[in-house]
Amino acid sequence: MIDVGIGGSAGADYVRLVESSSLPRSPRVTYVALSYCWGLGQSVTTVSTNYEAMKQGIHISELPPTIRDAITVTRNMGERYLWIDALCIIQDSSTDWELESARMASVYQNAYITVAAGTAAAASEGFLELRQHLAARSTNAYQAEWEAGINSDDRSSQPQKTILAARVIPYSTFHSMFMVADGLPLNTRGWTMQEKILSRRVITYTTHELQWTCQSLSTCECGYLLDSSERGDTITVNPTLNRREASYEWAKIVKKYSSRSLTYLQDKLPAISGVAHSFQSILQSPYLGGHWVNNLPEELAWKAYPPHVHSSDTVLDDDSDTASQPQYIAPTFCWPSIRKGSVECVYLQQQSRTWRPCSTVQGFHSEVLGENPLGRINNGAWISLRGHLVKAQLTIKRFPGFYTVEQVVLPNGGKAHMFADTFLEEFDATVLSESESKNGEMTTTTTDRSIRRSHISLPGPKSEKGLDCPVYLFLLGYWTEQAKGSSNNADGAEVQEPEPERKPEPNFAFLVLGHSPNQLGKYERIGFGMSFAQIEGASKLEDGELDRGETLKGLFGGDRRIVTIV
What we know:
Blueprint: E1 2-3, E2 14-17, E3 32-35, H1 51-56, E4 58-59, H2 65-76, E5 81-83, H3 85-88, H4 94-102, H5 104-110, E6 113-116, E7 142-147, E8 161-166, H6 175-183, H7 190-198, E9 201-205, E10 210-214, E11 218-220, H8 243-258, H9 273-283, E12 287-288, E13 291-292, E14 302-305, E15 342-345, H10 346-349, E16 354-357, E17 360-365, E18 382-399, E19 402-409, E20 415-420, E21 424-432, E22 437-438, E23 441-442, E24 445-453, E25 467-480, E26 486-488, E27 494-496, E28 507-515, E29 523-531, H11 548-556, E30 559-565
Parallel strand pairs: 3-5, 3-6, 6-9
Antiparallel strand pairs: 1-2, 1-5, 2-4, 7-8, 9-10, 10-11, 12-13, 14-15, 16-25, 17-18, 18-19, 18-25, 18-30, 19-20, 20-29, 21-24, 22-23, 25-28, 26-27, 28-29
């Protein structure tokens, strides 16, 4: 903690670092937490070489403006202790960093209040600045004389002088949606999202006003009360949620979090680990690279929105030597593996429908890298799924000025729309031969044309033919309309709902896979496929008298098998 209230000859000009273990346990010490953007070149941090000196005292003038402002606010609140990550974590100690990142949920949940420096894009900017507008409740209201017209029904009436008055407010009542959630620099950074979600109380300093959020109220100086749908990133981890509700809340968090920025991409899992820790107590599930194993395979149904993925300058359609792997973040089936752009969980969009899994998890592996059990993971994570796998053809048609990823065509002519995870490129993959086997095991290898993610955004060769390459579709499952049944009318009498004239067609969810360029016999995800079109015979899947496995095989082809995705 930072003790902002030390005495001595230096008085208020100094603060000092204190170890939490030295603070009294009863009564429990309260503290303020700071949520802010570091920016580039954080000037003062605690490292192993200055740790003892920081405990002796730090002159406030040596600290960046945002931290100085936080000290001012803490003192004005009458609080003595302040938690700031740059000063309270030993930044050059990987062990301390891992341990403290694992404690983020506890730090912000237990803080008396979190001060959010909303306007500062860097620690060097500060947030206690002159406002751009008058105070929301200014006594200097706008006033103007108003002369009412003559009443046409009473010719004897005379014009009356009136005063038209209105108080000044910073925004219209729409400011919460358009200015708060997206407009503040603080709300563009990855680390700060969990700080806001986990905190019991948050006071945010914006350009025009102060905003307050707690577990029962969200409001601001202009007096406009925000309801829960307008709170932006303020999602409370409610322990009373059931597992299904919690999985939907997690999906909302993934969407918001994935659109934020991180200075270091390898922080993708650590920067959300505090929230994950809180959700794990509700979901009671193993954690696999941003996913909850108990919610698989449905939770694997996510799609990416990479920047400019349809641009002719960024989608490669020919061989290249650009497959050199950058630093490992997560396996390809996990959403944190998307390095640029945002992610959306498709199962959240389909929550009004019933999920029918067509695949099962056979096994998985993930090894933690460091001290945070929900943080970084080692290269080598995988999942094995059993389900229908079919070879198909990916077609990317070229139109003037851009590429569009159109569809994946199955051998029987069926089609699925594909959402590419990122930039794509073809390559010659070494694969296990299916023509020869010994005791059921593949014994020889061959070469097959395949497709993989590309981690660059350089112009690819200009091709008039577009891209036409084999891929594999793995059927996760499908969503169908809720089954019709009986219900009660206003009098409590049972009413049988009429059967629909036509059974609704299911929405099928696929993983689009390519051969792994590095691990023989395994696959990597390159996209997500979904079939919305009517597929002849698909409605039979809900017929209880039919074998669903045989029906699926007839619809798509391919056999049920175990595939391992890395």
